[in-house]
Write a structure and sequence with these properties.
By secondary structure, this protein is α+β, with helices and mostly antiparallel strands. The chain has 15 helices and 17 strands. It has helices spanning 3-8, 16-24, 27-38, 44-63, 68-79, 85-93, 112-118, 123-126, 135-147, 268-278, 284-298, 314-320, 325-338, 376-385, 388-393; strands at residues 99-102, 105-108, 149-162, 170-177, 185-193, 197-198, 207-214, 220-231, 300-301, 322-323, 343-351, 356-366, 370-374, 395-396, 402-406, 431-434, 446-457. It has a 5-stranded antiparallel beta sheet. Strands 5-8-3-17 form a 4-stranded antiparallel beta sheet. Helix 10 crosses helix 13. The chain starts with a helix and ends with a strand.
Length: 458
């Protein structure tokens, strides 16, 4: 089965009886029904859809480990408050607790409680009010606005491997994200490590990779540095400059205005929403701003189950009005493209003052300005915290503390993997496969670390 066809088939519906079994929690029954269907001839796209659904169902329970009693205890432990059964029910009915049924039992998403704490849905219990100040970011933003730019050389040590309990001797193909040469990034250098190869500078999903036959468990490591150079843009209040802020970026292509793959889709709802948001606006900058306003003020940040588990990404975010950084960025890309504004993906990691983690954002194109940035999740966080200045900054700009390795959504990595990836859409922390393995790895079977070694102002 062609892996790309398998993933692309996820945007088509399941046969109704299988879908009913899945969402009723009869996962064994759904698997058996799929196996029976696969014994017969059928359209190749439908076969691909069913094959991929089997892997989805296999992974689903790993996302939802807690029963009701465990979920209630996790919530109490997190906020140190004796949350009542009645309050738990109220929170669930409000739509902020992701759950599924598995074998007749309601099971809760592994990070449901942390989502509600992060997005303020527990503020009425904890009494905590949003703090509009984020000194780490606010100081950088103030300097960028004052000087018109910020340029830093950042050195990173990254590693990836299979969890020791999941390791089996064999031939492994390992990919780790490697910084791409793009708008704000340049002079990328490998300082340590022994990868067998590194993809081209402007690859859509750039990685360093290893092909190794392992008899014993090991991690794969490398150290690299790059320059991150942000130039300040204020498209809402200033005229476009004489030349684009990031002149090395190529002009938009037709692909920057099109649907793409299984999930960058112009559904009827997304078309209607884009029209509603931009109706009456004549300039691209105001159209883009209205879209950014919607995503940052109406969509609440929520940790999500693996993207592989969703039938649609942008529409899910826009209908449920919740999503993480990736779903928010993708929603803005889709709405901008429908509105005729070129837009594209950029992602890998953000570097906070005490944490480095996977992160996604986007770029949009304005005449004169060229390619600019938007980070809807950082902007939405600023809006909810009551910081209009930081909210507006992330429309047009980024802070320089990013690692960008991906320039397209659902892009292939090289060498192309033969097994289904942990995340077929984005590559934030690496991918690993073992040749001949009966089943691909899940997110819970991989491990790794990212550490900032140095950050130098230039």
């Amino acid at each position: 089965m062609d892996i790309k066809q398998c993933v692309n088939a996820l945007n088509m519906p399941l046969p109704e009886d299988i879908l009913k079994r899945k969402w009723a929690g009869d996962l064994d029954g759904a698997m058996k029904a799929i196996d029976m269907r696969l014994e017969h001839e059928m359209p190749e796209m439908l076969r691909a859809r069913l094959v991929c659904e089997k892997e989805r169902i296999r992974r689903l329970p790993t996302q939802y480990p807690w029963n009701r009693a465990q979920a209630l205890e996790k919530l109490r432990e997190l906020i140190h408050i004796d949350v009542s059964e009645e309050e738990f029910d109220r929170l669930e009915l409000s739509g902020w607790m992701d759950f599924v049924y598995i074998n007749g039992e309601k099971r809760y998403f592994v990070r449901f409680h942390r989502s509600m704490l992060k997005n303020g849905m527990l503020a009425h219990l904890t009494g905590e009010k949003p703090n509009p100040s984020r000194p780490y970011l606010d100081a950088m933003i103030a300097e960028i606005k004052q000087k018109g730019e910020m340029k830093r050389r950042i050195t990173i040590k990254a590693s990836a491997g299979v969890d020791e309990e999941a390791f089996v001797p064999g031939e492994y193909l390992v990919h780790l994200p490697f910084p791409v040469e793009d708008a704000q990034q340049s002079d990328v250098q490998l300082l340590a490590g022994d990868p067998d190869g590194i993809d081209e500078q402007k690859a859509p999903a750039r990685t360093a990779y290893w092909r190794r036959t392992l008899e014993k468990w090991q991690m794969f490591e490398m150290t690299y540095s790059y320059i991150s150079h942000i130039r300040y843009a204020d498209p809402l209040h200033q005229k476009a400059p004489e030349k684009p802020l990031y002149p090395s970026c190529p002009a938009p292509s037709e692909e920057d205005l099109m649907e793409s793959g299984a999930y960058l889709r112009f559904t009827p709802y997304m078309r209607a929403l884009a029209h509603e948001l931009t109706d009456g606006e004549t300039s691209d900058v105001m159209k883009a701003w209205r879209i950014y306003e919607f995503v940052t003020t109406k969509v609440n940040y929520t940790f999500m189950r693996d993207y592989f588990q969703f039938d649609d990404h942008g529409e899910y975010c826009a209908v449920n009005l919740k999503g993480d950084c990736g779903l928010q960025a993708l929603t803005m890309i889709i709405l901008c493209r429908i509105a005729g504004i070129p837009a594209r993906w950029q992602s890998c990691m953000s570097i906070d003052e005490d944490y480095i983690g996977g992160h996604d954002w986007m770029q949009f194109y304005l005449e004169g300005w060229g390619w600019l940035f938007a980070d809807p999740s950082y902007g939405g966080g600023a809006y909810r915290a009551g910081s209009p200045e930081r909210h507006e900054f992330y429309f047009g700009n980024l802070d320089p503390m990013r690692i960008a390795a991906n320039r397209a959504y659902q892009a292939d990595m090289k060498p192309v993997k033969q097994a289904l990836r942990v995340d077929p859409f984005d590559n934030q922390s690496g991918e690993i496969e073992r040749a001949g393995a009966e089943l691909p790895f899940t997110m819970r079977q991989l491990c790794g670390d990212v550490e900032m070694i140095a950050c130098e102002n230039l």
